[in-house]
Please model this.
Amino acid sequence: MSERQHLARDLTLYLLARFGLIVVVALVLVLVKVPLLVALAVGIVVGLPVGLLAFRKLNVRVTAGLAARNERRARERAKLRAQLRGESETDAEQEEPVSQASEQE
Model:
C-alpha cells in the first residue's frame, strides 16, 4: 500500500476506535439506567482521554503519517515557489533550509 493509503486506513481506524469507545461507555451507562444524553456526555468526557491512552500505537502511526505528509507538502511548496521565482531545482534545494529558518522566526 502507498503512504497515502496507510494514512487513510490508520486515521479511519483511529477515529472509529475512539468513537467506538465513546459508544461503549455510553452503552454501559444506559444499561445502568443513566439517561441517554447524560450517558453520551459522560461517554465523550471519559472516552476521548481514555482513547488517547488506549490507542497509543495507532495514535503514533497517525501522527507520523501526518508529519510525513506535511514534510512532503512543504518540500513541494518550496519547489513550486522556486520555480515561480525562476530558480533551478538545485538552487531551491540549497536555499530551502534558510527559508524554513526564516519562517520559524
Q: What stands out?
A: DSSP finds four helices and no strands in the chain.
